[in-house]
Amino acid sequence: MYNIKVKDILEATGGKLLAGDENVEIKDVCIDSREIKEGDLFVPIVGERIDAHRFIESAMETCAATLTQQHSVVVISDKPYIQVTDTLKALQDIGAYIRNRLDIPIVGVTGSVGKTTTREMISTALAGCVDVYQTLGNYNSQVGVPVTITRTTKSAQVAVLEMGMSEVGEMSNLSRIVRPDICVITIIGVAHIEHLKTQENIRREKLAITEYMNKDGVLFLNGDDPLLMELKGKTDVKTCYYGLSEQCEYRAENVRIENYKIKYDYVHGDIRVPVILNALGRHNVSNSLVGMAIADYMGLSLTDAAKGFDSFSGIRQKLISIPGKYTIIDDTYNASPDSMKASINVLADMDNKGKKIAVLGDMFELGENSEKYHYDVGLFLADKPIDELVVVGEMSQSIKQAVEDSDSPIKCYSFKDNGEVALYLMTVMMPDDVVLIKGSNGMKLNEIVSNMRG
Fold this sequence. Notes:
The structure is a single chain. The two termini are about 40 Å apart. By secondary structure, the protein is α/β, with parallel strands linked by helices. The protein has a nine-stranded mixed sheet with strand order 9-10-8-11-12-13-14-15-16, with helices on both faces. Strands 17-18-22-19-20-21 form a six-stranded mixed sheet, with helices on both faces. Strands 2-7-6-5-4 form a five-stranded mixed sheet, covered by helices on one side. It has helices at about 5-15, 55-60, 85-100, 115-125, 145-150, 170-180, 195, 200-205, 225-230, 285-295, 300-305, 335-350, 370-380, 395-405, 420-430, 445-454, and strands spanning about 5, 15-20, 25, 30, 40, 65-70, 80-85, 105-110, 130-135, 160, 180-185, 220, 240-245, 250-260, 260-270, 270-275, 320, 325-330, 355-360, 390, 410-415, 435-440. It has three domains: about 5-85, Udp-n-acetylmuramoylalanyl-d-glutamate--2,6- Diaminopimelate Ligase, Chain: A, domain 1 (3-Layer(aba) Sandwich); about 100-310, UDP-N-acetylmuramoyl-L-alanine:D-glutamate ligase, CATH 3.40.1190; about 320-454, Protein-Tyrosine Phosphatase, Chain A. α3 runs parallel beside α5 (about 145-150) and α12 (about 335-350) packs parallel to α13 (about 370-380).
């Protein structure tokens, strides 16, 4: 945040100054009083469990100013108190205000699966040619997106923002804040189907990313997703397709795996550029492909865009080799049925001499059909070249049941907690063995990885 003062916050939010000077400079916004810095604007969010207004007094010992929806009269303070109706709405309005000051193209990325990796890969492709600012960590929510925008760097020539949603209306609001120039939808899966009921509803809500898109903007859709391909010729905005299908304008051809790297040819019209991708899983072809497509659309060097992928390092599916012990595919960040299947394929494709072991935990937010979705993952796993399945959690028992019902040769085991799983793996695994560890973030399967790394 730069060149922003309290008076700008007042303009953005329609707030009322209860104390302090409107010319005080604001350097950053902070939603966590434990991380407060000098120059910050403290935004106390009213959460389901904690109302952060209780921390205003301690935060104001350090920060420059605060928002508040609980003070309604003049406050005795040397520092600015800004009264607003709703601090979350005010934060979002500040994000939209900062966005209006930015004169750079913004890429908005959403989808049921692959948002984070796709955002990282788009950023990697563009960073070979221009200065890129992107979402940090998992700041893709109604709170995270406006915070991300306020932190856009001065040097940025393009921003790539991840936009997540779980309920009706959330994507529309994020589109209002971000006003993207380029939109990307990765896939329509069943994540958050508990709230949205059907995949068609999920698709409709994801498409709301274009609601406030620049009128000259473009929507990139994954042409390998049937629910997205159904939209061909039916959208109200300029739309391009990327994928492996011949119907896609931006395609990947000659896909192969060599030495744990994926190689393919990027094809668009008469253009053909070789890409070497330092990432596991064929699903990452599409994730990187749209990065190449956007670089192409923006008129950037495709050779330079492709170079970054050879050393790509994302936060998903980390390959951890413990010399003399075993290899771990750490994919504990989160899980849905589609991402589970993609990760199972990664494990199946591993060219190791030892055993392949899948450790799978519960998947959350799948609603009343959760048991069926877990069972379907088990059916998908049953005929893969995998030696052992280890499940932890209640719902994941359905994965195990499906494998057993299929008369698969895969050996199945069940454990009550992460500690037991780690102990089992460290006892039985040999140097040539590979284990995939994946489940929803709430299962805390990263504890297994931490124990195994020692």
